[in-house]
Every structure is written in structure tokens, then in C-alpha cells.
């Protein structure tokens, strides 16, 4: 009887370890880059809005990133709005602050005002490959 309880406990522990490992591996992907944004100087021009997007982007990944650009897409994911100038270097566990002016649809701007976040990603080269990773953003003054 005692060995049966021990076996069940071992199986439960192995299962829990497997689940935690899987969840942490999945959580890492997509969260290598995160940060905060603030919109300033919005100017509504008909169905377009010109604004300044102030960003603080953190590198939570495993490696330094150099010559990266940050792109902005409308929340459909298809409509490219623009990109920042290349970042010289973004070290692991460090952050960079930057501001860029963009013109986007008024509808997209209204989505941001109602809680949607900008569709930002970072594009960089590493180990001979080009990578594009989403940046998880939250609105905040910084």
C-alpha cells in the first residue's frame, strides 16, 4: 500500500514538473522583449492621426541585440505603419528609450485609447538568421 502511494506521488511530481517546464518554456517565447509606451502630441487629420510614440523597450532575452529596428503594425497585423531608426545596442536585462513619430488610422488610434496595445515587434539578426519577435507593451508614463 505504501509503495502504491509513493508511486502515485512520484507520477504526480513528474507530471507537475513537466507542466511547469512546458509553461515556462511557452511563457519565455514572446516575452523576450517587453516594455511601456506613451502616446504624445496626437493630431487628428480626418481619418488619420499623427502622433509621437514614446517607447521603453526591455530585453529580457538571453543575448544582446544590435542593429535592431522596431516596427509598428495596425492591430490587423497586416498594415505596416512604420519603423524606428536602428538601435545600436540593446543589452540583455537592459532597456532603451526612444521616440518616433507615426501616422496611423484614426480607428487604430481609438483602439489604443480604449485599451488595445500597439502592434510592435523587433527585427534583428542573430547567428546568421533574421528574427522578428513581438514586443509585449503596456501603457504607462516613464
End-to-end CA span? 60 Å
Total beta-strand segments: 9
What is the CATH class of the largest domain?
A: Mainly Beta
In the residues, how many domains can be counted?
A: 2
Helix content: 10-25%
Oligomeric state of the chains? single chain
Biggest beta-sheet profile: 5 strands, antiparallel
Gyration radius, rounded: 20 Å
How are helices and strands ordered from N to C? HEEEEEEHEEE
Shape: globular
- Low-confidence residue ranges: 12-27
The number of distinct helices, counting runs of at least 4 residues, comes to 2
Just name the CATH architecture of the largest domain: Sandwich
Summing up helix and strand content along with how strands pair, one would put the structural category as alpha+beta
How do the helices and strands line up, and which of them pair or pack?
Blueprint lengths: L1 H27 L4 E13 L2 E12 L5 E9 L6 E4 L3 E4 L4 E11 H8 L5 E8 L2 E6 L1 E4 L3
Parallel strand pairs: 1-9
Antiparallel strand pairs: 1-2, 2-6, 3-4, 3-5, 3-7, 7-8
Explain what this protein looks like in three dimensions.
- With 142 residues, the chain is of the alpha+beta class.
- The protein folds into 2 domains: 1-29; 31-139, Immunoglobulin-like (Sandwich).
- Helices cover 25% and strands 50% of the residues.
- It contains 2 helices and 9 strands; from the N terminus they run αββββββαβββ.
- The protein has helices spanning 2-28, 106-113; strands at 33-45, 48-59, 65-73, 80-83, 87-90, 95-105, 119-126, 129-134, 136-139.
- The strands form 2 sheets. Strands 3, 4, 5, 7 and 8 form a 5-stranded antiparallel sheet that branches.
- β7 (119-126) and β8 (129-134) form a beta hairpin.
- The model is unreliable at 12-27 (pLDDT under 50).
Amino acid at each position: 500500500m505504501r509503495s502504491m502511494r509513493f508511486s502515485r506521488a512520484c507520477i504526480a511530481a513528474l507530471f507537475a514538473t513537466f507542466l511547469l517546464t512546458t509553461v515556462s518554456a511557452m511563457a519565455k517565447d514572446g516575452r523576450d522583449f517587453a516594455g511601456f509606451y506613451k502616446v504624445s502630441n496626437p493630431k487628428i487629420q480626418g481619418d488619420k492621426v499623427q502622433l509621437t510614440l514614446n517607447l521603453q523597450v526591455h530585453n529580457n532575452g538571453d543575448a544582446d541585440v544590435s542593429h535592431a529596428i522596431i516596427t509598428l503594425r495596425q492591430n490587423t497585423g497586416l498594415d505596416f505603419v512604420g519603423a524606428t531608426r536602428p538601435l545600436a545596442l540593446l543589452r540583455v536585462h537592459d532597456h532603451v528609450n526612444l521616440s518616433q513619430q507615426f501616422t496611423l488610422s484614426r480607428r487604430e488610434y481609438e483602439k489604443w485609447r480604449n485599451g488595445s496595445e500597439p502592434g510592435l515587434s523587433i527585427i534583428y539578426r542573430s547567428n546568421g538568421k533574421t528574427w522578428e519577435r513581438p514586443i509585449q507593451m503596456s501603457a504607462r508614463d516613464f
